[in-house]
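Researcher: Let's run the pair from yesterday's discussion. Sequence first, then tokens, for each.
Model: Starting with the first of the pair.
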Amino acid sequence: MYIETLEQIRKMIKADGLVAGDKLPSERELSERLQVGRSSVREALRALEFLGLIETRRGEGTYIKEVGNHRLIDLLGMFILQDERAKEDLAETKWLIERLCLQLACQRWTEQEFAHLEKMIRQKTINYELFFQWVTAAAQNYLLERIWRVLHDFFQTIHGIMSFPDHFYEQMLNAFAKRDVAAVITLWETDRQSPLSKER
């Protein structure tokens, strides 16, 4: 029942135009408005709070949180990536997401972002993780960024720390400067061999 209540709350939030920082109606008000029992409302709110989508402030009420602060991706990763088959597919999925983010970043980087990348490369303070933190941020797709972070953390735990030679970053910088997607992808596929061909 609480799943249906979750959907009703989602529709109510959309219909009322509520955004992060806005206060939700009380349990009693939600129960009356949605015409469901208070226990169902309570369970639905607990689920939303567990995922970090809302927060309860003692004595104040319940508020919507920034979408970026939710833990849904982290929680999914925690359970899904325990499966042995999922672990086998981890490298492949991560590679595909990195390739897509490189393409998007090449098309979407801002002048400020490019200057930051150039500074890290020129000062030789860059590494694999910092590079892809930049790439996923410049791709301007928050969900892909969060998914990459979870996959990267699990991958690093299993396979250790990855690295690229300095010339990789310098060549990437030149390709990004020209917004040359084809060159970026070619560099990526040359220095980071595709794990897509798997024997079954």
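Model: Moving on to the second of the pair.
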Amino acid sequence: MSDELASDPEHVGEAPAVHPTTEAYDRRAAVEAILAADDSLTGRIYRYDLEGMSPADIAAAEDNQGVAFVYNYRLQIDALLSGEVPASPWAARSVAAKLRRWLKTLDLSPELRDDITKFEATLQSRAEDPDAQAVEVDKAVAKSKAAENSNTPGVYVYTLPHYLKHRVDEETGKTLLKVGHSARDVYYRAGSAGRLTALPEEPILLRIYEAAESASVEKQFHAWLNAADHSGTRTRRAGAEWFLTSTKFLDRIAQSLGLDIEIVNEFETGDA
């Protein structure tokens, strides 16, 4: 250092320049920012909650008759924010699917990408826990049988546990759902000795759309589904009454027809 520089009071003891420190990584804040910009149902419910809306208000805003979906999405949002694995394997699977979409489509910081990758693997491990799956399936089957015993006339929507665990279309969450009317379907299935032998798994009842003229209403559902190209008959796994669709889409059809919607089991099959 020159004598001139050394004698300059402004340079005495001067340390090398240091770049300003970057803001500390905050996982929760990063996830909140993603949810705030998320235009899917997950993001909308997150923002509804920030506004203090009740489940009934949220259902009305989404033109939905039931509120069960709100609690399901709240559970998923809590897991996304906290990084804690839900007890339900179905919820864990849904959160893992959401994280996989984020990993594919979003520009994430290295820290957040690493966190999400690890969390997704943990969630998937929970989702594949056979004991937890068996408990949840047993509960869903019990609810299904109780609802069938009501003998409510209408259109019944079933699926199999396999189609919930392994969505046919992972990107949209759509999977194979059986849409049939009560006179031909549910009464036979509930009382038939062939109920268990006809299918590889116990079916899970998701919805009942009450309708006195169930056969004619079933035809209208099938017409809407075919018009929307939700037909499942193009796959080897589906019969004539199986469609590659979602409960959200079916609920929309029911609403358009003025039908009451009974939610028997809520395993949301899509994130719009």
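Researcher: Give me one sentence on the second I can quote.
Model: The CA atoms of residues 4 and 179 lie 89 Å apart.
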